[in-house]
Amino acid sequence: MHVEIRSATVDDIAGLESVRAPDQEAGPADPRMARYLCGEHHPQFALAERVVLIAESEGEAIGYTGGHRTTRHECEGELQYLYVTPGVRGSGVAGRMLWALASWFEGLGVRRVCVDVDPGNERARAFYARYGALVLDSHWMIWEDLPASFGAQRRP
Fold it and tell me: Measuring CA to CA, which residue among 94, 65, 92 is closest to residue 80?
């Protein structure tokens, strides 16, 4: 499957929200995503620099990720969103999106990155751990150096 990952714009938000709508397990997309992308919604400790990336296959959205600079948990970056449609889970798309976000963070000089993971979401916890995230507490995981987690041999 050919997948293109690019920066999302406000025009992409409706499509990103709709791609998640049929996924009953995941629930609806964050209704603040457009405001987040425009810099009008700020999660706690968030700084101005942020990005939302969209993954597309054959012109259709199949996932998205996003993150921002932060001071939360003495980190420099926070992964805010990572979603892949059920039909492509396990295909490497999530890893490619995480790599793209790590590259964006690296361009800003960001190394230490955190992510809030629901305590019961063992699949997400295992995914992040596979890419080097460590458990901070029942909700948070941290990469001490997210870009370094993608050495040449591990790039998806």
Answer: 65
Mean pLDDT split into 10-residue runs, the chain, 156 residues: 93 88 84 91 95 94 96 97 91 94 96 95 95 96 92 52
Domains and CATH numbers, the chain: 4-149 (3.40.630.30)
| Rama region for 35: left / alpha / beta (φ>0; ψ in -120 to 50; rest) | alpha
What are the distances in angstroms from CA 111 to CA 30, 77, 148? 26, 7, 8
Structure tokens at 115: 């992510």
Pairing of strands 77-84, 113-116: parallel
**pTM (2 decimals)?**
0.92
